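Hi all, posting the design record for the shared folder.

TITLE: backbone redesign
STEP: 1 of 1
STRUCTURE INPUT:
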């Protein structure tokens, strides 16, 4: 499993285009016997387009986006309302579905998407972000895989989101000052309490390289400390939400 995870990290951070990101997640989902996956992201702006990276059948994803199904999808509805990962399927809903929601699940089932495990991701820059691992049948093997790898799947979702959002939503300015993708990424991890060494491990770069990017960010933002840079990042993100 260590080798599978390292391969995922290497693929994720050595490439930045959408097909490469999809290939990286497909590889580890297949290795974990979890079949298909989907990552859905929508920016905080009300007019932001919904972005989707997945290995679902293209006919289904095109149909889904063309019909704006994210607005009625019961999986997305629940992801918006909870921070906790959850399993889903027609037999698992604790509340009644409306007609369009039930029809959506029925349509998805025709494409081999009958149940899944979804990890919601909540942060100020996104209206909704979620990673789903899906299966064509809620068989015990799928449930066992989810239960066995639950913590790993949450980590995969967070790492994938961190990388994918930079590609899908490339705005990387702090208080009007544009940072490089790596500077912004390192600063985001610093805002989550990570040291330069930890950031290096997460991004598969050296501690010195991570510190270099953080120093560049501080210089561009005209501050002396990482804490001051993080404070500016938080203020900038809040202003974008408002």
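Okay, here is what came back for every position:
SEQUENCE:
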């Amino acid at each position: 499993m260590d080798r599978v995870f390292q391969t995922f990290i290497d693929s994720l951070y050595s490439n930045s285009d959408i097909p490469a990101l999809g290939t990286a997640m497909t590889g580890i989902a297949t290795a974990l016997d979890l079949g298909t996956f989907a990552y859905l992201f929508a920016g905080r702006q009300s007019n932001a387009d919904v972005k989707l990276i997945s290995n679902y059948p293209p006919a289904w994803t095109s149909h889904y986006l063309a019909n704006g199904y994210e607005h009625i999808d019961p999986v997305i509805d629940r992801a918006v309302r909870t921070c906790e990962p959850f399993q889903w399927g027609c037999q698992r809903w604790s509340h009644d579905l409306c007609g369009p929601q039930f029809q959506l699940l029925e349509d998805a089932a025709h494409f081999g998407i009958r149940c899944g495990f979804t990890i919601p991701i909540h942060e100020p820059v996104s209206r909704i972000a979620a990673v789903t691992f899906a299966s064509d049948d809620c068989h015990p093997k799928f449930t066992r895989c989810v239960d066995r790898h639950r913590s790993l799947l949450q980590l995969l979702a967070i790492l994938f989101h961190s990388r994918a959002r930079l590609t899908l939503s490339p705005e990387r300015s702090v208080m009007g000052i544009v940072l490089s993708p790596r500077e912004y990424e390192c600063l985001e991890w610093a805002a989550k309490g990570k040291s330069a060494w930890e950031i290096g491990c997460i991004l598969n770069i050296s501690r010195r390289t991570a510190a270099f990017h953080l120093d560049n960010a501080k210089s561009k933002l005209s501050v002396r400390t990482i804490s001051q840079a993080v404070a500016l990042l938080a203020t900038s993100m809040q202003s974008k939400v408002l």
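COMMENT: Residues 173-241 form a domain with the Arc Repressor Mutant, subunit A fold (CATH 1.10.10.10).
Let me know if anyone wants the other runs.
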